[in-house]
């Protein structure tokens, strides 16, 4: 089929060592049909994102269920790259994800992987567009472990645990960590739904990390105005009158 | 005596002290009285008057009968079924007749009922109700319980099956011996999954099965899975329901180890104390709380199987201890089979 082409550069991502070894064996078996070069192996999502940026990778063989950052989230972040790699998901068993893949015509492999199936998937591997990725993640709603931004061609991952607050301004959302601010292009409403457990709305345009709330107080001199102070942040955040009572209830329950 | 064993249970009298049984009797009698009143009354007003008078007479008799039956319940149930039925009927007819005799002067000349009428009515109710309880006890007996146990039998997660197959495949070329051993473990595991769910199994077999399962998991997870066994003091000959330990440990791996990149330790503690077998399974609580529903289903399943086997004598407790999640099962220590064992070689 595609004889003299340069070898496909692959990254294998799976948390289980035997699964990675098995993929290597099968790939070696089909070397005649398809030339590949395995540029690395990763054991979880963050590792994969790092390696994709260190090497030139054409295709990522990405396991879905992994500890920490899972495959779907990893694919989502990888898509921030200017030229995202092609992605082939793999799973041992995941009824919901497979259904979503079928609906969105995304190629995936079922483990144990068969050689012919692997070759076929690799020959037509392509990168996924943002809409498809959104739909895949909707099919399996799970809060991300990180937010990500593209800064000068590189993916910067922001761990959710580091985030103090998220504030909507015009087209962007400001992400505030103790060190600095990032701008991401996402909707605050969707972030609120996704991180329902960890973040609380205190204002029409602001979500704060529940675990970071330190104190709530009354603004001096003004009527019915309240502010909120977060751990590791000098700035005082304004609590809207609408959110105040609901917020007080939630803080009590912490 | 009521037998603990749910199998080959013969038809027995209901426990008259159970609220459900008493309620069924009371409601049936009231319904029959109402039907009688309807048949006799020419219009609605007459019906109500009639029904209220009948009830005034019947209710004290009914209550007395129920109390008598409850008091005698244990004794009645210890007789053979035939005798039990006759005695119950006798009690069921005598109490209302005596009650009517006693109440007659109090209620004055009602003229609604004759003593023969009361006796015939009580006898008919008794026969009808006892036939109903007979049918009901047959319907609930062995076959149904067995089917329920089969349906409840733990199922292996498909995710585990395919990942294990994949792990074995990865060994076939590099380490054929380990691959063979892994396949033997899988065979053991599946044999018992497809085995007889209602027969108790020796604790040591169940522990061996759990070991086989853990070896397979260690194949996939490597150093991420550490297991700490405390079973030196376990009563190896105790009989427990099959597939109770393995699913608990599977849960522990699935929820406590797999979601953590650095893995963790599972600890198993089995011992005998005060004639009860204690089984404790501990796993670290993963920070990520994603798939809790599956966990509850598995535990509810085990709980129901314990109930079917041991009624209220067995317990399953969930105890979050800080960063560790613990499941604690207490089972009565039994050694002999409570039923004839047809196929002893069902495992290993």
Question: How does the SSE layout of this entry go?
Answer:
The complex is a heterodimer of chains A (about 250) and B (about 350).
Chain A lengths: L7 E6 L3 H13 L6 E7 L2 H10 L4 E5 L7 H8 L7 E6 L3 H9 L4 E3 L4 H9 L6 H10 L6 E6 L2 E6 L5 E5 L2 E5 L4 E4 L3 H7 L4 E5 L2 E4 L3 E6 L7 E5 L5 E4 L1 H13 L1
Parallel strand pairs in A: 1-2, 1-3, 3-4, 4-5
Antiparallel strand pairs in A: 6-7, 8-9, 8-12, 9-10, 11-12, 13-14, 14-15
Helix pairs in contact in A: 2-3, 3-6
Chain B lengths: L18 H22 L3 H35 L2 H27 L7 H26 L1 H11 L5 H17 L1 H18 L7 E2 H19 L3 E6 L8 E2 L4 H13 L6 E10 L2 E9 L7 H19 L4 E7 L2 E9 L16
Parallel strand pairs in B: 2-4
Antiparallel strand pairs in B: 1-3, 4-5, 5-7, 6-7
Helix pairs in contact in B: 1-2, 2-3, 3-4, 6-7, 6-8, 7-8, 8-9, 9-10
What does this molecule look like?
By secondary structure, chain A is α/β, with parallel strands linked by helices. In chain A, 31% of the residues lie in helices and 30% in strands. Chain A has eight helices and 15 strands. Chain B is of the alpha+beta class. Helices cover 59% and strands 13% of the residues of chain B. Chain B has ten helices and seven strands. Chain B has a five-stranded mixed beta sheet with strand order 2-4-5-7-6, with helices on one face. In chain B, strands 1-3 form a two-stranded antiparallel sheet. In chain B, a hairpin with a 2-residue loop joins strand 6 (315-321) and strand 7 (324-332). In chain B, helix 6 (158-174) crosses helix 8. The longest helix of chain B has 35 residues, at 44-78. Mean pLDDT of chain B is 82; it is low at 1-8 and 338-348. The chains are: A alpha/beta (254), B alpha+beta (348). Chain A binds chain B through residues 15-19, 21-22, 25, 43-44, 65, 67-68, 92-94, 110-113, 142, and chain B through 157-159, 161-163, 165-167, 169-171, 173-174, 219-222, 258-261, 288, 290.
Could you give a short description of this structure?
The complex is a heterodimer of chains A (254) and B (348). By secondary structure, chain A is an alpha/beta fold.
């Amino acid at each position: 089929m595609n004889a003299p082409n340069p070898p496909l550069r692959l990254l294998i991502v799976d948390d289980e060592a035997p699964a990675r070894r098995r993929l290597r064996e099968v790939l070696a078996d089909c070397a005649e049909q398809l030339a590949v070069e395995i540029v690395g192996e990763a054991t979880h999502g963050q590792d994969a994102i790092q390696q994709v940026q260190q090497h030139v990778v054409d295709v990522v063989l990405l396991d879905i269920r992994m500890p920490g950052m899972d495959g779907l989230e990893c694919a989502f972040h990888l898509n921030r790259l200017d030229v995202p790699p092609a992605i082939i998901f793999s799973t041992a068993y995941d009824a919901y994800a497979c259904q979503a893949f079928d609906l969105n015509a995304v190629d995936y492999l079922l483990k144990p992987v068969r050689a012919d199936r692997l070759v076929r998937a690799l020959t037509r591997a392509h990168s996924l567009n943002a809409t498809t990725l959104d739909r895949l993640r909707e099919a399996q709603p799970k809060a991300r472990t990180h937010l990500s931004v593209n800064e000068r061609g590189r993916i910067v991952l922001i761990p959710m645990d580091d985030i103090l607050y998220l504030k909507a301004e015009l087209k962007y959302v400001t992400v505030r960590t103790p060190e600095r601010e990032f701008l991401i292009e996402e909707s605050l409403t969707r972030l609120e739904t996704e991180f329902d457990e960890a973040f609380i709305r205190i204002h029409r345009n602001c979500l704060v990390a529940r675990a970071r709330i330190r104190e709530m107080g009354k603004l001096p001199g003004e009527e019915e105005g309240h502010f909120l102070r977060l751990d590791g942040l000098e700035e005082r955040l304004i609590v809207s009158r609408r959110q105040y009572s609901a917020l007080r209830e939630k803080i009590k329950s912490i | 005596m009521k037998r603990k064993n749910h199998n080959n249970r013969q038809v027995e009298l209901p426990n008259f002290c159970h609220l459900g049984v008493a309620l069924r009797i009371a409601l049936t009698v009231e319904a029959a009285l109402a039907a009688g009143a309807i048949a006799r009354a020419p219009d609605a007003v007459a019906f109500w008057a009639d029904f209220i008078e009948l009830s005034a007479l019947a209710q004290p008799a009914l209550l007395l009968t129920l109390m008598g039956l409850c008091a005698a319940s244990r004794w009645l149930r210890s007789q053979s079924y035939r005798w039990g039925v006759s005695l119950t009927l006798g009690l069921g007819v005598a109490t209302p007749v005596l009650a009517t005799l006693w109440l007659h002067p109090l209620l004055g000349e009602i003229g609604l009922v004759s003593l023969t009428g009361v006796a015939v009515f009580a006898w008919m109710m008794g026969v009808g109700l006892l036939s109903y309880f007979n049918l009901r006890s047959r319907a609930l007996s062995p076959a149904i319980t067995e089917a329920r146990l089969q349906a409840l039998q733990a199922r292996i997660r498909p995710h585990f099956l395919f990942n294990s197959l994949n792990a074995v495949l990865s060994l076939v070329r590099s380490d054929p011996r380990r691959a063979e051993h892994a396949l033997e473990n899988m065979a053991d595991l599946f044999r018992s999954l497809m085995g007889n769910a209602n027969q108790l199994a020796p604790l040591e077999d169940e522990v061996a099965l759990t070991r086989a399962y853990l070896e397979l998991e260690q194949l996939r997870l490597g150093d991420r899975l550490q297991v700490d066994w405390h079973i030196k003091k376990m009563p190896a000959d105790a009989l427990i329901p099959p597939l109770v330990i393995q699913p608990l440990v599977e849960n522990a791996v699935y929820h406590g180890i797999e979601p953590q990149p650095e893995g963790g330790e599972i600890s198993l503690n089995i011992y005998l104390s005060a004639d009860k077998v204690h089984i404790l399974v501990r796993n670290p609580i993963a920070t990520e709380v994603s798939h809790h529903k599956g966990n509850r289903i598995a535990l509810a399943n085990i709980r129901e199987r314990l109930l079917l086997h041991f009624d209220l004598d067995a317990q399953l407790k969930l105890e979050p201890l800080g960063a560790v999640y613990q499941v604690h099962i207490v089972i009565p220590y039994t050694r002999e089979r409570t039923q004839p064992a047809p196929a002893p070689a069902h495992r290993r």
